[in-house]
């Protein structure tokens, strides 16, 4: 079984990325051949400064490795170290129906947030389909917001297979039900573009400040509170043990505890949860060649697979 996922180096990783995509991806390393990449070609749709893109890519690699990605078990690489994906994206785009891409919600969302309508942004799902199909991937662990992209990938694979014969496997999205969407401090989906993120490796003071500013309703201290409508409770459920979660639920229902106390509890658990990752991050930073070695090793393996699949594709469509 081959497992593949990617993450854009367009900013700092937050706990929505962690629980929605990174943690499941890390867990899947044990179940098959995992390939995880830093999607720098994709990030070009929003990052326009070369130094920023390079720095972000390295930092995302560092953070992902610190969170438990194991380069001995998984293939970790940079998207742009496998330029064949852009060739496959072109080939896929020649069968991709306009209507299919016009229905893509992420494109519309990005325009609504003020991004310029470029061809690259519109074509993003085709490049993403190429990322997935070029490795004969079976399983793609992603957050819920990427589900439509996997559906588009399957549609394009079917189209290619119908047109040129069986070339591609149909990949499946693996979405974590428990953490479908991690809320941000305002209760909306956590996203760096909404500015409501709590970062995995934010400093202590800033992280505490963000947790203390989680938006709540105005239920008075004495009154009973609804845990199932509370962002504090939802975030706490991700980082605390079952007993601790049950205890917080009870205290919500009992009344007598204010939101500020719940937030303090949340901060402590959150800080503790990521402590081993912060430690691992420090260790990796001390080893000057660790990240580059992991990426170079990963690029080699990813290229081997991509070259094989591309031979099959080129032959099937008549390019060689
Ligand atoms: P992004 O770079 O923010 O588009 O997301 C990278 C990965 O993290 C994708 O697989 C997303 O689905 C996932 N992700 C991002 N934000 C959240 C969130 N708030 N809850 C769950 N998953 C998320
Ligand atoms: N589009 C994904 C995101 O924004 C990143 C990504 C690019 C990806 N290519 C992929 C995820 C292939 C899974 C598989 O988060």
Summarize the structure.
With 320 residues, this protein is mainly α.
**Order of SSEs:** EHEHHEHHHHEHEHHHHHH
Strand order of the largest sheet: 1-2-3
**Overall shape:** globular
Number of domains: 2
Low-confidence stretches: none
User: What structural class should be given to the helix and strand makeup?
Assistant: mainly alpha
Span of the ends, CA to CA: 29 Å
- How many runs of DSSP E, i.e. beta strands? 5
Q: The CATH topology of the largest domain is what?
A: Rossmann fold
Question: Which CATH class of the largest domain?
Answer: Alpha Beta
Helical content band: 55-70%
Q: Give a list of the ligands.
A: adenosine monophosphate, tryptophan
What count of helical segments does DSSP give? 14
| Share in β-strands | 5-15%
CATH level-4 homologous superfamily of the largest domain:
HUPs
Mean pLDDT: 95
Q: What is the C-alpha radius of gyration, as a whole number of Å?
A: 21 Å
CATH architecture of the largest domain: 3-Layer(aba) Sandwich
Largest sheet: 3 strands, parallel
């Amino acid at each position: 079984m081959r497992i593949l996922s990617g993450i854009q180096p367009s900013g700092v990783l937050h706990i929505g990325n962690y629980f929605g995509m990174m943690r499941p991806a890390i867990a899947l390393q044990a179940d098959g051949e995992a390939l995880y990449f830093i999607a720098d070609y994709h990030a070009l749709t929003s990052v326009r400064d070369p130094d920023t893109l390079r720095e972000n890519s390295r930092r995302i690699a560092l953070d992902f490795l610190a969170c438990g990605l194991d380069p001995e078990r998984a293939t970790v690489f940079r998207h742009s170290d496998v330029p064949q994906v852009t060739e496959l994206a072109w080939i896929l785009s020649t069968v991709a129906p306009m209507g299919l891409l016009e229905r893509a919600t992420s494109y519309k969302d990005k325009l609504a947030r003020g991004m310029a309508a470029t061809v690259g942004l519109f074509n993003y799902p085709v490049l993403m389909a190429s990322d997935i199909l070029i490795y004969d991937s079976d399983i793609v662990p992603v957050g819920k917001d990427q589900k439509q992209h996997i559906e588009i990938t399957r549609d394009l694979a079917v189209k290619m297979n119908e047109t040129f014969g069986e070339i591609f496997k149909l990949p499946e999205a693996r979405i974590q039900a428990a953490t479908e969407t991690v809320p941000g401090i305002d209760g909306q989906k956590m996203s760096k573009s909404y500015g409501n993120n709590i970062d995995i490796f934010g400093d202590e003071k800033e992280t505490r400040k963000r947790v203390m500013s989680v938006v709540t309703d105005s239920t008075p201290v004495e009154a009973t509170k609804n845990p199932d409508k509370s962002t504090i409770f939802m975030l706490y459920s991700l980082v605390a043990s079952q007993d601790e979660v049950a205890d917080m639920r009870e205290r919500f229902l009992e009344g007598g505890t204010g939101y500020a106390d719940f937030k303090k509890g949340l901060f402590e658990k959150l800080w503790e949860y990521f402590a081993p990752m912060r430690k691992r991050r420090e260790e990796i930073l001390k080893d000057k060649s660790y990240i580059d070695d992991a990426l170079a090793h990963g690029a080699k393996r990813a290229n081997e697979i991509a070259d094989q699949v591309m031979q099959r594709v080129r032959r099937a469509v008549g390019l060689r």
